[in-house]
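Lab notebook, bench 4. Still working through the backlog of constructs that have no structural model yet. Next entry is a single chain of 417 residues. Request: give me the structure tokens for it.
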Amino acid sequence: MKFNLFSRGLILCSLMTGLSCSNDDDAVVNVPAPTGNFTVTIENVFETKAYFNNGTTGFIEPGMSESFSFDAGKGHYLSFATMFVQSNDLFYAPGENGLALYDGNGNALAGDVTSMIDLWDAGTEVNEEPGTGGNQPPRQSGPDTGTDENGTVALIGDVMDGFSYPGDEDVLKVSITHDGGTRFTVTIENRSGTSSLPTPLAPGVWVIHSSGQTPLFTGGDPASEGLEAVAEDGNNAVLESELAENSGYVSPFAPGSYGINDAVFTSGEVASNALESLAEDGNPSGFELVFNTPVGGGSPGPVFPGSSYSFDFSATEGDILSFATMLVQSNDWFVGADDIELFNNGTPISGDITSMVRLYDGGTETDEYAGAGNNQPVRQTGPNTGADEDGVIENETNPGSHVPEVSGMVRVTIDVN
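Model written out:
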């Protein structure tokens, strides 16, 4: 920045005489532009969730059926529970680990899965003869009226209570349709009308979860309060609330890149090869300036909820910052910015700048359901495996109702040293 200053003599002339003075040898002094040392921190602020998705089933009378749909990817499992109403605390469900929705070769589960469903005893209320007990829902005076059993969840075949129950396939049929992509539809049909004991199936719950999880029960352990309400009274409100609180979309962020006056990306343009690798596979190696090691970490890797990346640089007034980091549970989405001015009228910006950050679609790979797509990094067989999109970089305005706003994913701050 340059300023023309009067020489000392010219200034004195003006002050002493009050007259206009001139000098053909005015001095030119170069005043340096403001500079600063900046630290940018990108923190993953997703709320940690145990499960991916959940929902409820309704009251299914004999001869009726109900269907529900969801998206799930490789590694996802389905668990559900619905009460055998003509009982004290019995319910139908898969095993404690649920149903694997894909096999080891990545093929989706489909067809009649009734043989994978069992009748379970919650162990919370003493059994009475099925279909006659005064503390069973059709006849009880109110919820939770039977004698406490203080037992554990077990297959009814292992309980040895002396009563007879209709075969599972005589009471219900459970089928799964793979609707294409990551979409599934489950249908529960009540077939008990012609069985030895016709019974409704009470409102229940379902949940999509990962391998090794037991979201509804563990055989040999006491039932939760929520499962007790489902199994004794067909009341799914407590368990549904617990599952909803612990279900949702969560994603790491991958190593990324930043640039000063050298944009990592430009909205509205076709992605470079380097950005394609960053946005699809979390690989920033095509860029010169990268951030790839979580704060406090010893090696490159993604950042999970509660962790962050940080990078430092020096800048001068007029400089512009851009950066990008992949939203891992997607095909080619990233969060970032391409036009952050680092000074405002000579003052360096600082503080929380999350409002300047956007979610972008790289336009390079066809989108799948976020968090379930089988061509997304945590499930794909290798890099660059999805269908080409042949688009341009643009703001992602319709990520899905299950995906939070940017401020619910990331917090970006700038500190000036």
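Notes after review: The first helix runs from residue 8 to 17. The chain has a mean pLDDT of 93. Flag for follow-up if needed.
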